[in-house]
Amino acid sequence: MINRRAMLQGVLGAGATGGMLLADLNSTAQAQDATPIPVGSALPMSGISAADGIEFKNGLELAAAEINAAGGILGRPVEIHVEDTKEMGADFVSQAMQRLVDRFNVPVIINGYNYGTNMTEMDVAADNDIIFMHYNTLISHNEKFKTDPERYYGSFQGDPPEYWYGPGCLDFLKTLADNGKWTMPNKKIAIIPSANEYSVVIANAIRDKAAEFGFEVSLFETVPFPTNQWGPTLAKLRQDPPAAIIVTHFLPQDLAQFMVQFLPQPTNSLVYMQYGPSLPAFREIGGEAVNGVVYSTVIGCLPDDYSKSFRESYRAKFGPNAAYLTGSQTYDGLWMWALSAAIAGGPSEPFNKEGTRKVAASMRRFVYRGVNGIYRADPAGQSAYCYPGQVKDPSLGMPHQFLQHQDHKTDPKLISPALYAEADFVLPPWIK
């Protein structure tokens, strides 16, 4: 096990695995001055995704405080700088990132997600020769990386791409039925994406793989993004009730409204949703209506002993309702970059391709166990491997988590994968 405090101070601490590699990487490390290292982040601090933006900022601040308490990176403290991406989109995000480089000379930008960018962030990172770590959760990151790995060497996606939600969801539903935990009234599934890349890619993957898992797609309806008017869609669901309703839209306030509008006349259907139920707004708006909802995320703080101190510190610092499931992403991202920079002999700076390549090489080699599980970069796309959809070894992939809201007054319960589960699936109260 790597000792984070020792490594950040320039002292090697490693077990047998990777010991020689770490020794080689640290042998050239020189003492640094105490000048702060600027760390940039372009986040939606206002607009419809501000709730997530706030949590992403919280995660960075907590990680920075811990890193600095440990002595910084080879003696240099880190300093967080945030630019608001507002309603997101390519122009807002790329301009915010470039401002971070121009104003603060950041060697790294660690973002949560920004939608509607077409991954233009990767071009900003490449043009300035900086490290870029993000949690957009998009297969388009992998596809763009593959077009020119030499140009995009410094761009990393801190979680698996959204594609893996598709087969993972279908396998989860089939396993529930096969194990007798859920009796399907039929083989039908209804798929409801919203009009954005992330939602559509997941929905298409579910649609295209449905038959392989024994399901029939009875409804595929794309709704606006954002939306809180679910009446027309619910009318179609009630006309031909499916065994499962799969909503791949992700804004928590909109998903809560779906449940509020669904429950007056529910169908005998399991309801699966995408990511948004992890945020407190889902429970706050939906109340008792959210009890029984299942959702999944390919990244989120695990409810295990390893993350216990993080969860306690996060809520002590940011409040009892703070969403550590979201803040954990940038928290792990900053820790992983800091350790990689220490191994590489220190952080680089913009336009220093040689130095930035050393840090990127460390990030590619590093198998990092964070509070979200295992990050290991897939060399074909430089995003995290997904367990169990992509790799079967849980020590080499980030777990695709399935959670259920069993009581809206408490945090959701992790019910799958089995190796990480803290509770069993409970049949939703509206299913008779």
From TrEMBL:
A Gene Ontology biological process term: amino acid transport
Q: Which UniProt keywords apply?
A: Amino-acid transport, Signal, Transport
Q: Which SUPFAM superfamilies match?
A: Periplasmic binding protein-like I
Q: Where is the Leucine-binding protein domain?
A: 36-378
Q: Which PANTHER family match?
A: LEUCINE-SPECIFIC-BINDING PROTEIN (PTHR30483), PERIPLASMIC BINDING PROTEIN OF ABC TRANSPORTER FOR NATURAL AMINO ACIDS (PTHR30483:SF6)
The family line of this record is: Belongs to the leucine-binding protein family.
Its name, as the record gives it, is: ABC transporter substrate-binding protein
**Lineage, broadest ranks:** Bacteria, Pseudomonadati, Pseudomonadota, Alphaproteobacteria, Hyphomicrobiales
